[in-house]
């Protein structure tokens, strides 16, 4: 290919790439909404009442004696109901707290075997130690990234649930849940005010977690609501808003 033709090909590719970006930008502008349209709904959403039913049969593979006790306290031996409000109760042991959060966050035990890995003796003891250190404390992103990498089967989706219910801060920002569903909504730019978080993915979410927290906490001040209310709005309604 001659130098002249090569320049034409490069120019054509650059033009097509620019057109794709413009097309995507128009698409997201047309299919995204302002979160302020839902301000009153978000402000009065009773987020602490969000609850899930958990059936014992979905957790039969997990050999933990205190699982039976948890089911007996919050339901019966076969079925129970856990709400966010119950998970903010720190009067229980860290062992019971971890199990309660996992039950609430993954009522059917989730996909794969990550939870089984977490509950292996070495990983479980390490996790308890880390979370005792995090409880009601401010943690840096660097420390968080290092600690998550130490435990097989642990990702930001699960860790953020622990951080949230332990009233942890990350780089000074109130911890919130960041799971795959919220990441997908951010990636799709469903909410205009959060479009600059569209670069979040499962692969970089741990490193970008503080950025997400900062944005949601700042937005909550503008909406005059709790950051938790924005998070649960994204999870429950984010993909269906119009």
Outline the structure in words:
With 242 residues, this protein is mainly alpha-helical. It has one domain (41-237). 56% of the residues lie in helices and 7% in strands. The chain contains twelve helices and five strands. It has helices spanning 3-31, 39-43, 65-74, 84-87, 94-105, 114-118, 121-134, 141-149, 156-165, 180-187, 205-223, 227-237, and strands at 51-55, 79-83, 138-139, 169-170, 173-174. The strands form two sheets. The chain has a three-stranded mixed sheet. A two-stranded antiparallel ribbon has the order 1-2. A hairpin with a 2-residue loop joins strand 4 (169-170) and strand 5 (173-174). Helix 8 (141-149) packs across helix 11. The longest helix is centred in the N-terminal third of the chain and has 29 residues, at 3-31. The protein is globular. The protein starts with a helix and ends in a 5-residue tail after the last helix. Residues 21-27 have low confidence and may be disordered. InterPro entries: OGG-like_put.
């Amino acid at each position: 290919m001659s130098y002249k033709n090569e320049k034409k090909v490069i120019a054509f590719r650059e033009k097509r790439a620019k057109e794709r970006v413009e097309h995507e930008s128009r698409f997201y502008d047309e299919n995204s909404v302002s979160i302020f349209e839902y301000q009153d709904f978000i402000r009065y959403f009773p987020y602490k009442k969000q609850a899930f039913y958990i059936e014992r049969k979905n957790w039969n593979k997990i050999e933990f004696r205190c699982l039976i006790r948890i089911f007996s306290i919050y339901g019966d031996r076969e079925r129970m109901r856990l709400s966010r409000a119950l998970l903010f109760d720190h009067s229980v042991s860290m062992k019971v707290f971890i199990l309660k959060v996992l039950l609430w966050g993954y009522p059917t035990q989730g996909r794969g075997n990550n939870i089984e890995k977490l509950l292996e003796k070495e990983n479980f003891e390490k996790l308890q130690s880390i979370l005792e250190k995090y409880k009601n404390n401010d943690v840096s992103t660097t420390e968080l990234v290092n600690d998550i990498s130490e435990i097989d089967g642990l990702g930001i989706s699960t860790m953020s649930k622990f951080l949230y219910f332990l009233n942890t801060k990350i780089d000074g920002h109130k911890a919130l849940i960041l799971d795959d569903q919220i990441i997908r909504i951010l990636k799709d730019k469903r909410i205009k005010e959060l479009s600059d978080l569209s670069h979040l993915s499962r692969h970089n979410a741990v490193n970008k977690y503080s950025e997400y927290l900062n944005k949601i906490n700042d937005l909550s001040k503008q909406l005059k609501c709790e950051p938790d209310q924005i998070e649960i709005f994204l999870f429950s309604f984010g993909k269906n808003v119009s």
